[in-house]
Design brief:
- The chain is mainly alpha-helical.
- It has one domain.
- It contains 19 helices and no strands.
- α7 packs antiparallel against α8, α14 runs antiparallel to α15 and α18 runs antiparallel to α19.
- The radius of gyration is 20 Å and the shape is globular.
Length: 347
């Protein structure tokens, strides 16, 4: 299992060098991103979802076989349309064994672009990404991973004023995994979260409501109602409906407090703080239902950029709190994996 810690140690070392020299090591980050692509793309049956994706890959024909065959196969399996289309398109040019590498290349390259563009210490952003998102999404929930990466790119476009590109990224992400359509609530949320004092009051109220179980009945009602998608209703009462630890929510609340107390005119920093506040709000509201709580992951990628921005500014408290969270998350993520095994690309 030591091999799973290697990416974290690599980016920890590179981020330390970046912090000491105050110089972004973008080449080292892209090199690390390439290693992550190969690492996850070559994995064999080491996670819970691997066999399911192999089944999907087998069922979908190459798009070169004709749209008729594609539509017939796509209607027989429950997958979001754009993911089915992407797989069939890739199968027209590569063998099935290369599909995991191709998908990982898209997702991780998006993160590499965002991190190296938005921050001066991109290795720091990669460090938190490896601990939080890499093993949970790119290594396991492949479809959701690609959708979340597209939303991270969409957030970058929204911040830089390209609202149409933001919408395009979110819609494509939603057609990969329906949960990412929730990213469309970002614009109205930013208007609500225009004042720091308002965010503090809202976040504190949500923390109290979550820890006292105020949202539990509402969440369970929604999961079992006719409004909920069939797949959500199916998971009600299973392990995917389990509650998140109150300590975990409290750590994220303390991180949000530390981020909000920073006085800065950096528009980029303030934007990503508001995005992370939205992630925290969703975490609190759906704290009693894991499957719905994953919607918060769509916005939690903001923490990767925020950590890097705080490393650049040498803000000790946010850095320390996010590192504690990252180590906790890394251990949690690795608990879902089996010992690493690689597939062969030769045969």
């Amino acid at each position: 299992m030591v091999i799973y810690f290697s990416p974290y140690f690599y980016f920890f070392l590179v981020s330390g060098i970046e912090a000491l020299t105050r110089r972004p090591l973008r080449s080292a980050c892209w090199l690390g991103a390439g290693a992550l692509i190969v690492f996850t793309g070559l994995r064999s049956d080491v996670d819970n979802d691997f066999s399911s994706y192999v089944y999907y890959f087998d069922q979908l024909p190459p798009l070169s076989d004709g749209f008729g065959n594609f539509f017939e196969a796509a209607t027989d399996i429950y997958l979001e349309p754009f993911f089915s289309f992407l797989i069939s398109t890739l199968k027209s040019v590569v063998a099935d064994k290369w599909l995991f590498i191709c998908i990982a290349a898209i997702s991780i390259s998006i993160y590499a672009f965002v991190f190296t563009t938005e921050t001066r210490t991109p290795a720091s952003a990669f460090l938190i990404y490896v601990a939080d998102g890499f093993y949970l999404r790119e290594f396991t929930q492949v479809r959701f991973g690609l959708a979340v990466a597209l939303c991270a790119l969409g957030f970058y476009y929204y911040r830089t004023g390209h609202t149409r590109r933001f919408t395009t990224c979110v819609v494509l992400g939603g057609l990969l995994h329906y949960a990412t359509f929730f990213a469309l609530i970002l614009p109205p949320w930013l208007r609500v979260a225009s004042k720091t004092s308002r965010l503090l009051w809202v976040s504190t109220g949500l923390l109290f409501a979550s820890t006292t179980g105020a949202f539990d009945q509402v969440t369970q009602w929604f999961a079992n109602s006719s409004f909920a998608p069939v797949r959500i209703a199916f998971y009600a009462g299973t392990s995917d409906a389990e509650s998140v630890s109150a300590i975990f929510i409290l750590i994220q609340y303390l991180i949000l407090l530390a981020l909000l107390t920073v006085q800065t005119k950096d528009e980029r920093y303030n934007f990503y703080v508001k995005v992370f506040a939205l992630s925290f709000a969703i975490l609190c509201i759906f704290s009693s239902f894991d499957l719905l709580r994953r919607i918060s992951f769509v916005f939690a990628t903001s923490l990767y950029v925020l950590f890097a921005l705080n490393v650049s500014a040498r803000r000790v408290v946010p850095i320390a709190l996010i590192l504690v969270l990252s180590i906790t998350l890394l251990v949690m993520r690795l608990n879902i994996l089996q010992p690493y095994a690689a597939i062969s690309l030769i045969n």
